[in-house]
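User: F-box domain-containing protein. Structure?
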Amino acid sequence: MTGQFVTLPLDVFAEIAAWLVGLGDLVHLAQTCSRIWNLSLTSRQYWSETPEIVAIALPTGHALSTVPVDQIYALAARATSLQSTPLQELMIPKRQSCYEPNGVGHNVEFLHSPANSWYLDHCGNTVTIRRAEKGWDDIFCDTGFPSNHHSFIGPAAGQGMLWVGFIQKWLVEGPSPESPLSWEFTGFKLRFPNERGPPTAPTVEEKIRIELPKFPAIHNIQLNDSMFFALSQDRHSIQLVDLTNRSGVNLRLRKYMTNWALVGRDSPISFTIVIESARFFIYISGTDRETLDFRSQYYIANFPANGKTDSNCNALTSSGITWRNDVLDVTHSYELPEYPQQLPPLPPILPEGAVRLSILRSGSFYLHEDRILAFETDENDLQRIKDFPCFFGGPSETGDFLCRPNQISLAGPRNSIHKGVRLYRFAPPDDIPDDHKYSVDAFDHHNLMAFIAVIGRRGGEQSRKLYKVIY
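Assistant: Predicted structure:
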């Protein structure tokens, strides 16, 4: 139960006691309520209606709705247990396993949840997909795509499906000398096996290739079954492809969306785009070029309507996509106050007809009567609304910071619910040679699991080992 009987109001306790024969009935009631409560914590419905859904390490390629029912209980029970575990001052490895990448390279990327151990290995001539688990060493899926190019990982498509894509680091030539240079994106729809079953490699279910018209360097790519979009490095252009009808549009941001920001090495612009319900949700923050104050802007824009192909854009690329140019259709804008405390608290009852748009660290955003409402949000607010946002949290790649074996590493994935950073102090594996360094490459703070890379030199050559460590 969430509380004890001694904490119940007297009138509630009297109501319960009136229906009980004796102390045994009271104990039985407490045990029954406790069992029901614990079962609810491990049910699919409970996790689908709480913002803490990110606490569950779902099987790779699965959404909560597609996870086999026999796995829900175990996954949810572990997540619930870890949530109630107090943060240790120093995290000591409980179990660890060591494995070596395929080659001497060190470019390894983890597929969403390190708890599931799948990673992209760029160390050979082609990118392979492997799993860092005992007995899976010789099991892999070779994509056939050259290694050491930019990779992008899409959201889980359910039923074990996951999109993984690659784009070259440089422009590629067309099929003929007259063809313009372009970026080429190659995507793979992968089906991952039952991770509780025997070692089995993922399989490629579908492969797509998209040529993007000449375009500034790619900053980010998102991909799902029906839609693809790429954001340019200069953050001024978006290329959107409808995979169903093979049509593409090159969208330019309106100048007023970014021309207020000071751009420079010491003044970067933060730019986030989310696609949901056929709308763009755009968050731009940076330094105001006139006042030098920090500003945050929030925009909503419609998907472009179908239109005629622009004569200045290639009518048809070799990947069979018809392109046109357009300008982003912005419908709403909102400037966040300088301090989150200036936002009003989320009311007990939202205005009738209010639709949640998104959430940032600053608060929750709703659309009501054609205007944006913004509210300051805390954990209690989130637990009492069903229309909860999807948080960024859980597994994260922590970057390349190197430590000596006797140093303690720090990693602080952002906790979006509490709007803060939680720091963890790691004790590394105890068998690292003194002349080697290590880095925490990825850490899942919901499962207390990390991937640690150990780098050194042996016989004049660089060596690299990867540890999977459970704390």
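Confidence is low (pLDDT under 50) at residues 307-318, 379-400, 413-421. The first helix runs from residue 10 to 18.
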